[in-house]
């Protein structure tokens, strides 16, 4: 049972018919593309225009991640333009404006529009979801935790020289997948975790993979899924062989890694960054086959028949155009997002914002 109440967990919860743009970054990225289109067509006006937005912020975020590349270029020209405008104004009023004020504003602007990548960690209790989350966020291993705490955390990362706000939902299902909508409609990528010393936790993964495969099929979007065998440090108690892990991953067409939350930080970081890369790849593929700004129909999730995940790198298919069946993304606002400064944040990393965990003892 999930401790915090989320919309997906409430059977009476019904999605509103329509939602508007929830993501200012997307709004801006969309505007950028419009502006680009208009410019390429020889028109000078720049604006958002009447852009039909799709039903899914997840979908939008995918597009936005790719569009962010274009956005960065525009940001640079905007920065120059702002600087020029500020210089013009300061000479008009005879009062020089500090360059810092401009660069701070640009920095704030940059942070507000950094692309997001939402990753949901799934798995039976005790598989190490919280430990992996904490390791990724703080480089530390925890041994005490609140097993009922379900929260979402964020860390600004740089993956392949491109900044990204990685948001991690550390789920807290008691015994298998329950009320899955809260993460299905939120995440861009999923990590399904088992403990290599616990056969039952491995069997539990299949339940999650079944849910994900149905979601992927119904949403017609190939969300990346990573199967992770955790607790590699206690190899001597291993109950699940690497071959078994690999075989399950192959069956469901997902990625596979073995890690340890209490060993190398780099290995844990690598799998999170890999998830970001996969999300970017999917976004690129999706954009290449799907016209921008077309709404997709989304079928509601049915948790019945099991279907394997589609093979990786298959091309996403187009949804037919129709009166959109808008669904509001179950908000993660119910989960607490706590932003603090940590030692990692104060290190030499360029982007120091780190949202840290509540309810954990960190040693
Ligand atoms: N040896 C070892 N222990 C680990 C590792 N990861 C987690 N643990 C321990 O396994 C136990 C469960 O870890 P959690 O991170 O709380 O597991 P969880 O999947 O979040 O479990 P719930 O919070 O109950 O959903 C804790 O005692 C951790 O200290 C690991 O890589 N190696």
What does this structure look like?
With 363 residues, this protein is α/β, with parallel strands linked by helices. It has eight helices and eight strands, in the order αααβαββαβαβαβαββ. The strands form two sheets. It has a six-stranded mixed beta sheet, sandwiched between helices. The chain has a two-stranded antiparallel ribbon with strand order 7-8. The longest helix is centred in the first third of the chain and has 37 residues, at 57-93. The chain is globular. The model is unreliable at 1-56, 72-103, 292-308 and 310-355 (pLDDT under 50). Bound molecules: guanosine-5'-triphosphate. Guanosine-5'-triphosphate is lined by residues 123, 125-131, 143, 145, 147, 172, 230-231, 233-234, 260-262.
Can you give keywords for this protein?
363 residues; alpha/beta; 8 strands; 38% helix; globular; disordered N terminus; binds guanosine-5'-triphosphate; Small_GTPase; G protein activity
